[in-house]
Design goal:
Order of helices and strands: EHHEEEHEHH
Protein name: Acetyltransferase (GNAT) family protein
Distance between the termini: 62 Å
Organism: Mesorhizobium australicum
Structural class: alpha+beta
InterPro entries: Acyl_CoA_acyltransferase, Diverse_Substrate_AcTransf, GNAT_dom
Keywords: Acyltransferase, Transferase
Largest sheet: 5 strands, mixed
GO molecular function, one term: N-acetyltransferase activity
Oligomer: single chain
Number of helices: 5
CATH architecture: 3-Layer(aba) Sandwich
Number of domains: 1
Number of strands: 5
Helix content: 25-40%
């Protein structure tokens, strides 16, 4: 087995989208996915764009991916890196590919001045939670993610309280 981890390019948008759809299927949230390969190719997958990515290949076959973006902690006063999505194809799980992807993102972040890595894990995804804990990405009990999507975001962006 030969593992190659490389930067994702717009040419990888289709494979990345398939991985996102597979994650949605596993989590039972596939109907919520409205992204397309065209959006991935246009909006990200290059430095300075909305996000970057890494592709893992085993013997030339897509085995997984990790999408990430820069963040900044106002409390730490330091930049960091945020992992948006991590996916390893079922056929390649247990081969430490997910760990290799996360470690590579951490090294990329550190080289760019990052002092931390953050990510969110779906509440019901206990397998992922155990994986992250095992590699040292710890859950902080005092952090909760709040979000406004869809109509809630539209209302938030339109309503003026003054």
């Amino acid at each position: 087995m030969t593992l190659l981890i490389r930067d994702a390019t717009p040419a990888d948008a289709e494979a990345i989208h398939r991985a996102i759809l597979a994650m949605g299927e596993v989590l039972g949230t596939a109907k919520k996915i409205t992204s397309t390969p065209e959006i991935f190719a246009r909006e990200g997958l290059a430095p300075g764009r909305a996000f970057e990515g890494l592709i893992a290949e085993v013997d030339g076959t897509f085995a997984g991916m990790c999408l990430y973006l820069p963040v900044f902690s106002t409390w730490l006063g330091r930049p960091g890196v945020y992992v948006q999505d991590l996916f390893v194809d079922e056929r390649y799980r247990g081969m430490k590919i997910g760990e290799a992807l996360i470690r590579r993102v951490a090294r990329i972040g550190r080289a760019r001045g990052a002092s931390h890595l953050r990510l969110a894990v779906d509440f019901d995804n206990e397998r992922a939670q155990r994986f992250y804990e095992r590699i040292g990405v710890t859950r902080y009990a005092d952090d909760y993610i709040h979000a406004a999507y869809g109509e809630a975001f539209e209302r938030l962006s339109e309503e003026d309280v003054t």
